[in-house]
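lol ok so funny story. i was supposed to be doing the assay writeup but got distracted and ended up predicting the structure for this chain instead. priorities right. anyway since i did it might as well share w the group, maybe its usefull for someone
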Amino acid sequence: MRLISLQLCNFRQFYGKTPEIKFSYGQENTTVIYGNNGSGKTAILNAFTWILYEQFTAAFAAPEILINKRAIAESTVGIAIECWGEIKFERDHKLYQLKRKCYGVKQSNQELEITESKLFILVSHDDGKWYSPVESAADIIELILPTSLHQYFFFDGERIDNFFRHHENNTIAEDTRELLGVKVLDRAIEHLKKAKRTLQEELQNIGDTETRQLLQAQNKLEDSISQSQNQVTEIIQQIEQLENQKKNLIHQLQELNGADKLQYLKDKLIKQEQSTRNNLINCKQELKNLISRQSYLVFLPQTQKSFIKLLKDLHQSENRYSGVKKDFIEQLLQQEKCICNRPLTPETTAYKELTKILNQADNQQISEATIRLETQLKINQDILVKLWQALDQKQAYLNHQYLEISQLEQELETVNKKLRRYPDHNIQSIQRDIELLENKIKELILKQGIIQQDLTTQNQELSQLILTISKHQLKENKQILTKKRIQATAEAIIRLIEVRTRLEEQFRDSLEQKVREIFSSISFTPYIPKLNKNYELTLVEKTSGISIPVAASTGENQILSLSFIGGIINRVKEWSQQNTLIGPDSSTFPIVMDSPFGSLDQIYRKQVAKAIPQLANQLIILVTKTQWRGEVATEITDLTGKQYVLAYNSPKPDCQKDWIELYGVQYPLVKPSNNQFEYTEIIQVYE
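and the output, tada:
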């Protein structure tokens, strides 16, 4: 999971729609966001958890009040105020756009009525278009990073030591089991137990009254499906109208002097991108066809080896008369005369010997079939070698196409940026209108996807309903089959319990070792972290040769917590690569940390600053000016790709201004508000 950007609208301190906060990745994997206390650092941290999970950290005060105060004050009674947050992220070469939205409506008594939030998701496919996935947004998030684990990747650094308070140890154990995939085994065992109990129950027939109720439900569901289909048709028509408007604007842009070259370049890049995506789709289809036709060859080498040995033994058999054909011997016996003119009558010894040979002689058809099979085996071996070569070539081609698409997208963004900043205001205006239409089209596609997802669910329900109606009465007794199923279920439970026990022991031992390595690299104390069976993490020291428990300080607890998080990420990365068993996709992880250096002294600040960029593939740090300066900036600056400043606008007439200097430029941290409201602006820092 790679975070790409975050954008907010009327969320807490942030009035209106904010600019996108884009996050670094790769060698410069760190994004730093500067802000004073109260400027919105904790709000940004909680924007992630709200959008993804609709949850908040302990330090997030009044979570029920999400909508910006200025937006509320400026709103009209009865008119909805929009509040939303949007995250874009990438996973397995797919782009995801995740948006959580709620509304507030001011009542006549000046109270604000807030609606429940709704979560929407779009996925970009290989053709570059956005679609609504079949799975729900919540299900997709759970597969990528489950809710129970989010506190390890989005957390308040000043309160991180709370991870190891005694009353939370059980939570850590459960969360770690989820990360490892053990909880999936737990659920499987519980489901098997329920299935075992269900199999033991007697099947009930469906009565006539229930059948009539099912028919009524069928009619109601069919009416609902018809309404949804009409809505989809209307949305498709709206999208076509907007696409036509967009084409007209593009045509206008091409006719304007100065923008024509940029627009022609943009059209060229779009065509190249579409062509590349078509190549990508075609290559994937060719890869599927190749695998469907020839993948069976991968499983044949051992069988071929055994068959070749069988043929070799057959050729070397002493009882096999190579070259002596069965029909030749039969002809001699029918003539009752040998080729040497000796008589061959049934009572002679020669006749009896030839009869034995007849039973053991080559059958011509078998010999010919054997030769054909030997030839085919050699052909299969050559085809298998070519298959592996073709698969490697196709995969290399796919990777090249993904890289080319990425480069084209960057070039397109550069052209769009030039059009937005073009000196001619007409060109800027048309470009903004084009992007506005594109956003409207995207929203309509999202709405269409949601309705189509509902349609899919409704059609599935209708199919199941029709099936239930057709099978309303069960007549056969299935006791024998049920007993076999119960026995198989009981055996499966035993096997899963054994797998779970071994997985837990192996993972816990490797996790403890990694936590020790990270803690030792940060802490100057000789203490050793120890992880028991309940995942309770403590410190011991062995300077006297005996393990003695140590009462950890707040700073040591913070380092211990960071070590635990780093250990989890590192172990699960390796675990995911070596065991493609059951847990979530754990190959990459981002970490978002709010004030990770507050309670540490100078030495620990330096060590932690050196360690945290190595904990995850992507790091987002929210810090104050004082937390960043000195040893922290020294250790992390070279790994920083993007930086942003949260500029707090204070309504106090005598507010004390504050700023931070970066690359020779002063960026405001606190400045007077130009109205009576407090709000925060997001400013990007440029080198």
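The first helix runs from residue 41 to 53. The two ends are 27 Å apart (CA to CA).
back to the writeup now i swear
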